[in-house]
Amino acid sequence: MQLIFEKSREGRRGVTLDALDVPLASLPAELCREQPAALPQVSEFDVVRHFTELSSLNYGLDAYFYPLGSCTMKYNPKIAEAVAGLAGFSALHPHLASTESTWSQCQGAFELIYETECLLAEIAGMTACSLQPIAGAHGELAGVLLMAAYHRDKGNAKNKIIIPDSAHGTNPASAAIAGYDIVEIPSNDRGTIDLDSFKAALDDSVAGVMATCPNTHGLFEPDIHEIARLAHEADALMYYDGANLNAILGECRPGDLGFDVMHYNLHKTFATPHGMGGPGSGPVGVGERLAPYLPGPRVVKTDGAFALDTPGKSIGNMAPFFGNFGMAVRAYAYIRQLGSEGLRDVSHAAVLNANYIHARLKNAYRSAFDGAFMHECVFDATPQANKGTNAMDIAKALLDYGFHAPTVYFPLTVHESLMIEPTETESKETIDAFCDAMLEIAARVEEEGDPFKDAPRTTPVGRLDEVKAARDLDCAYLEPASAIAP
Amino acid sequence: MYPEELKYTQEHEWIRGEDGTCTIGITAYATEQLGDVTYVELPETGVKLAKGAEAGAVESVKAASDIYAPVGGEVVEVNTALDDQPELVNESPYADGWFFKLKDVDPAELSSFMDAAAYAHYVEEQSQ
To answer: Do B38 and A471 touch (CB under 8 A)?
Structure first.
């Protein structure tokens, strides 16, 4: 299909603005463009057709199964969209919060922020929470900065963070951006943190431990209590990556496991749109010790009204205003709709579904670990790769069966990793159809070796050249001179 | 299958030692595991690296992996051709796809690494 720039025609307009009814004020010359922006010139109808066609080429959760491990691609309930669209939320000007005289006009939004922070803290056994971070990794960075503020305050000279190789992939980057050296520790044969390696890496220079539990192998960390105890003995703090929180809602709380600080992914666990579907939200939660350092300003409850206050030792703003507020509205609607029992049912179903898939596929695909999986299961396609069909080929083959591929080649600890997370929102029929497709693929590989080298065949575009895309990154459209207005 | 004159590390790097300098790259097995290499980050020349220090990174469509200095020494030369042609790592891992050279290397450090036969055995175990 054509790019919207290629549909541009000189002089075509979607809207015509009314004549100016106020005096024209000119910007200083140094703030003005030297040339007008090269925007496409198209009618409203061109734009509607263009983006409707694009959306029909997109593979989205509302249309298809999306078992992307570590990503929790669950259904986004439409009532949450309706609530977030209420004018009292969506038409609120963020600067109403900027001066005390207009706080009275945004009490509802303040209350929602306050209540959502309290609910998230309760769910994870934290003392307090801030909705400011606007993505999961941004929440990680906030968490690491909170740990750094704590150690700075105590006069602790610590420069290392321990991260198991089964942690979520962004953890080392977040810790490095905050200025820490990373100490990676390996997993044991069971796919969980190797306790001896952890003990060997732990000393007074360690500021914190970043763990994901259940970890990126889909396994609960059995030694997590002991790890937290040892870390605290060395005055190191425990960071919980919330990527896999969907596995333990209502059953187990990171705060009770010994974690001091964590982030939540509203776009994973709390059903707000994910990935290209919408902006992220990665609230940071803290235990008692780190609460004085939380990002500010914070919504506080005073006599009869909500107000703003910044904790005395706050690390400052992590994002403008209150983060992606619309995501908080959706998450609040989701949590209140389900209640505590409903949230527990979410995790029960997510874990059951992953284990059902594991049970159906384990004779055809090699299970990467022997332990009991939580909300996702990991297979190693090395036997298939040895016959000529690697994990990437299996992923591409699945597209022709009408399913999004699972996560492949992550976790890095498994050579030909296939990481499947069905979530709680899929029916047994959908999950069975996915398993049938996986079994058929395995059977064909067994018989034919490499029948999927040219898959996918039925998608809008065939096998993409990922190497060329990475080596020759080129995403700027250079227009032919005639199409764009001077 | 693996060149006899090289030494090998458990991190799938190869080392060619000659006259107090060492040339370092990654093995054909490593390139197979990584898939097509899209970017190589190399150390600066003149930098002194301790044994086991991070020396750079290699990125492929699948993953990004650190490169380590298998022995201590000063970086005297890096393979700048990889800036524009990272595919050399896949096409010619033991010749045109080398990464960097170290000088002032202690020859004794080299003896602890695997020879070609031992490395082939190690790879065999890894790929089961």
So the answer is: yes
